[in-house]
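subagent[fold] <- orchestrator: predict structure for attached chain, return C-alpha coordinates only, no commentary.
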Amino acid sequence: MAVKIRMKGIRGMNEKDLRDRIEQTRTELMKLRVESSKGTLRKESGKLKPLRKNVARLLTRLNEVKNND
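subagent[fold] -> orchestrator:
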Protein backbone atom coordinates (compact mmCIF):
# COMPACT_ATOMS: atom_id res chain seq x y z
CA MET A 1 0.00 0.00 0.00
CA ALA A 2 2.85 2.44 0.66
CA VAL A 3 1.52 4.75 -2.01
CA LYS A 4 0.76 8.33 -1.02
CA ILE A 5 -2.95 8.81 -0.49
CA ARG A 6 -4.00 12.09 -2.05
CA MET A 7 -6.17 14.51 -0.09
CA LYS A 8 -8.56 14.62 -3.03
CA GLY A 9 -9.32 10.93 -2.45
CA ILE A 10 -9.46 11.33 1.31
CA ARG A 11 -11.99 14.16 1.12
CA GLY A 12 -14.43 11.84 -0.64
CA MET A 13 -14.49 9.42 2.30
CA ASN A 14 -17.03 9.48 5.08
CA GLU A 15 -16.11 9.06 8.76
CA LYS A 16 -16.52 5.27 8.79
CA ASP A 17 -14.33 4.86 5.70
CA LEU A 18 -11.68 7.08 7.28
CA ARG A 19 -11.66 5.04 10.48
CA ASP A 20 -11.40 1.76 8.55
CA ARG A 21 -8.56 3.06 6.39
CA ILE A 22 -6.68 4.36 9.45
CA GLU A 23 -7.00 0.95 11.10
CA GLN A 24 -5.74 -0.87 7.98
CA THR A 25 -2.81 1.50 7.55
CA ARG A 26 -1.81 1.29 11.22
CA THR A 27 -1.93 -2.51 11.06
CA GLU A 28 0.34 -2.56 8.03
CA LEU A 29 2.68 -0.06 9.67
CA MET A 30 2.84 -2.18 12.82
CA LYS A 31 3.78 -5.28 10.79
CA LEU A 32 6.54 -3.39 9.01
CA ARG A 33 7.88 -2.04 12.31
CA VAL A 34 8.06 -5.57 13.73
CA GLU A 35 9.96 -6.76 10.66
CA SER A 36 12.25 -3.75 10.93
CA SER A 37 13.04 -4.47 14.58
CA LYS A 38 13.83 -8.10 13.70
CA GLY A 39 16.13 -6.93 10.95
CA THR A 40 14.23 -8.77 8.20
CA LEU A 41 12.98 -5.61 6.51
CA ARG A 42 14.89 -5.06 3.29
CA LYS A 43 13.01 -3.75 0.26
CA GLU A 44 10.07 -2.47 2.29
CA SER A 45 12.12 -0.08 4.42
CA GLY A 46 11.03 2.80 2.21
CA LYS A 47 7.37 2.14 3.01
CA LEU A 48 7.51 3.23 6.66
CA LYS A 49 7.60 7.00 6.13
CA PRO A 50 4.80 7.15 3.51
CA LEU A 51 2.59 4.98 5.74
CA ARG A 52 3.15 7.29 8.72
CA LYS A 53 2.29 10.29 6.57
CA ASN A 54 -0.85 8.56 5.25
CA VAL A 55 -2.02 7.97 8.82
CA ALA A 56 -1.43 11.64 9.59
CA ARG A 57 -3.40 12.72 6.50
CA LEU A 58 -6.30 10.45 7.41
CA LEU A 59 -6.34 11.64 11.02
CA THR A 60 -6.26 15.26 9.89
CA ARG A 61 -9.28 14.71 7.66
CA LEU A 62 -11.08 12.77 10.40
CA ASN A 63 -10.58 15.71 12.80
CA GLU A 64 -11.88 18.13 10.16
CA VAL A 65 -15.00 16.01 9.74
CA LYS A 66 -15.55 15.76 13.49
CA ASN A 67 -15.04 19.48 14.11
CA ASN A 68 -17.48 20.50 11.37
CA ASP A 69 -20.36 18.60 12.95
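orchestrator: received. Logging for downstream: The chain has one domain: 15-68. DSSP finds three helices and no strands in the chain.
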